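Hey, I'm writing a tutorial for new members on how sequence and structure tokens pair up, and I'd like a real worked example in the thread rather than a made-up one. If someone can provide the structure for the chain below, I'll link this post from the tutorial.
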Amino acid sequence: MSSCVVDLPEDIIVKILCRLPVKSLIRFTCVSKRWRSLIISDPKFGKSHFQLASQQRTLRRKVLLTSYPTVREPDRKKWAEVKLTPLFQSLDDKFSVKNFTIPSEEIEDLQEMGSCNGLVLVGRPCRDHYKSLFIWNPSTGFFRKIPHPSFRMKSGRYFLNYGFGHVSASDDYKLVSVVPAPSDMLEVHIFSLSANIWKVITAPYSSFPCWVNRHGTFSNGAIHWVTPCGNETLDPVIYAFILAEEEFRRVPLPPVLWKNEEDRNPTKITTLVHLGGYLCIWSRKCFDTQGGEVWAMTEYGMPESWVKLFQFNIHDFRNAFDVEQSPWDLCFITEGDTMVLRLNKELLWIECRNEEKPVCSGRYRLEKVQPKVSNLAFYFRATVYDETLVSVAE
């Protein structure tokens, strides 16, 4: 029986490849130089693949773990801490881990600053400036340095506020930095990934107070920050910077969260990543670390669409971890409304179903992948990114 080799047209091959998962396509990069260039380096193919996966709801999401190990060494009269190289890893839904190598010499103190469509913003944000900035796709290894912005804030009580997101209409990715100016105006420094330039616009201080949460959350085409608790001069509100229009707007919070005038324990509200695409908040009392409420805006911009997803008390998780001794934080909410908590050295997946008791459905300990070194200590950060082939040419 003779074999038959079919020479398919290029456009048919591209359409077939567009329907395959990222993991398979990465393996196929060794087929030929043309395939490697198409899969790894072609922004048009990466965009088409992402759009099709989004439409067919076949996008895979992974957790990006960034660990910062230190070793305590005796130094005569005291212990000295020696920083080791940060460790970047991906964690999939089956808890298998992959180590990444960052192609930069500026890896010390590098941290994740936001992700969008598979692109991760990494850098070294200081209180008043950036030491370095990069765009990185962990799935393909795409890595691009962002030029330094022109600002450097004067030391004071203000922190640098930033966010990263995508403009669908222009298919552009933007990094936003909000900087207090010497006058009564704010400077908003905006970096366009497609144009590869920074530009500066101004806005009145009333449109955005400079003491909001430092890291903004991207959702529905805007980056969101919330005023902190205990600020008596500001109404609790979400400040949104609309990336397409490049202007600030206010998004109202559920009034039930803050209209109790007799309550002297102020409410602390932070925005969260919700993998279903909703604008999501976590509300809890400033002087009470026992739990809180998670709300989602089911129709963006509509105040009446706020829905309380669940209310929880950390003592309900006693079977999962030592709630008195373990510091914890709420990282993100999955598409199925499962909370992911970050503990000292592990992640927990907690399912909260209406009035039912919360259930721990998964856990992962980071000690399994840390280097075997005596006197090792570390802390870590966790965020979510999409497995895509997206890249942006300079």
